[in-house]
Amino acid sequence: MSNVVEVVVTSEGSGQLWNACVWDPRVGSPLMTYRGGGVAAPHSLCLLGKDYLIISDHTKPVLHAWQLNSQQPVLAKGVRLVCPGCVTSVAVSPDGCYCVTAVAEKLHVWQIASGRHLAVAVRHFQSISCVRFTDDGSHFVSGGEDGLVLVWSLAYLVSNNAGEMISGQNEPRHVFADHSLPVRDLYVGPGGMRARLISVSMDRTCKLYDLASGNLLLSVVYDCLLSAVTMDTTEIEVFVGGSDSNIYQFGLHSPPRMQEYHLSKEEKSKKFAGHTKAVTCLSASVDGVTLLSGSLDSEVMLWHIPSRQCMKVLHHKGPVTNAFFTLAPKCIFSEEMKPTLVLRSFQKSSDLNEEGTVAVSIQMTQDKWYGVDDYYYYDSKSDHMAVTSSTTEDSGLKEQIISLKKINSDLYGFALEKILQPFSSNQTEDVKSNRSNSTQPAASKSLMKAQKLKKKKSKKLNN
């Protein structure tokens, strides 16, 4: 089966047989199953480069990872991918260097090779439902229960010194607030920031955006709640999954001239009918001939796009949460695998001063890299390059900084005491003088009154 060009990766909500599975779409048979992890949440199954598969447990704040040629998770090897809370969506950059996890209304950015927590992005007002990367890895898009669709710059977040986003500062590149109800799915086409973005929501609309300009190009209104969306490789046909178990097809080769468009009866008839419950995920094959759909009815169907006929059905034990096409990684069929990516445990904090290794991302030929613990070097006949990760110098600098801060605080306190000392003594003397001056006139007045009263009494007695 090593001649398979494209495979299907799925996950379902029961977890009875496995946590994730790789299928051969030609015959509908499983090629590899992954066990020992949690049940994957929707929009939380993705590939990490060509080496690992990652899912998020919908009941625990942890990510589970497997090598693609192994059924046992890497947790057994001591790698723990612990997050600040239960993850609702996961996205990995195409180069496998960064991972974005959605926890409630916050986005956390992690570095895969070092496990460092680089940034926290806060702009949504409710839980985030889905996250998608652009094909060049420069930006990612998030959609939430608040109806917002945000476009984030990865480099801008990472260069923010791992600090939490402050209101009014470091805003996302684009903020789309055209949906009135929760966003259920996103699709980002090829082309980096020149790509097309499609979002579907429970407000029954499918909206098409231009990432470069941030303009809304088209809004298509349907008769049912929308839950999934995708496009073919030519970006001519749009496939939208609804809560009525149907998949609608809409062509962009002759787009309407108005911005908001209601489908006609003929266009509504262009649908894929076969599921019995709401559609949860959609994906198109590379050749543009096959459409994959997952549903809450525990079925994954493979459709022939030109005829809209179902060719194969992949049966599952529970509701399908994730399903997509991907090019078949060669390492699935190899018994011995040397990962090209370094996977480390996630750090608990985003403090840049925390002790740890410093990761340097250098792209070289895979066969010429060798590693021993924290020392990585590149071996070649013509040149030698070494990259080491050490914290001895950093620790010495930290101690010097702490001692200088202490000396500075002591000097400040001493100077402040000397400066305020004469002022405090003069102030006390003035207060004493004021008190004496204020009491003396009052005493003299009382004595004068007493003397006058005595004189009056003596005169009356004499008379």
Q: What does it look like?
A:
This protein is α+β, with helices and mostly antiparallel strands and 463 residues long. Helices cover 17% and strands 39% of the residues. The chain has 2 domains: 6-333, YVTN repeat-like/Quinoprotein amine dehydrogenase (Methylamine Dehydrogenase, Chain H); 404-463. The protein has 3 helices and 32 strands. The strands form 8 sheets. Strands 16-17-18-19-23 form a 5-stranded mixed sheet, with no helix packed on it. Strands 3-2-1-29 form a 4-stranded antiparallel sheet, with no helix packed on it. Strands 4-5-6-7 form a 4-stranded antiparallel sheet, with no helix packed on it. A hairpin with a 4-residue loop joins strand 31 (375-379) and strand 32 (384-388). It is elongated, with a radius of gyration of 34 Å.
Topology:
Layout: E1 6-12, E2 20-24, E3 29-34, E4 40-48, E5 52-57, E6 62-67, E7 81-82, E8 87-92, E9 98-103, E10 106-111, E11 117-122, E12 128-133, E13 139-144, E14 149-153, H1 154-158, E15 174-176, E16 183-188, E17 196-201, E18 205-210, E19 215-221, E20 226-231, E21 237-242, E22 246-251, E23 260-262, H2 265-268, E24 271-273, E25 279-284, E26 290-295, E27 299-304, E28 309-315, E29 320-327, E30 369-372, E31 375-379, E32 384-388, H3 392-462
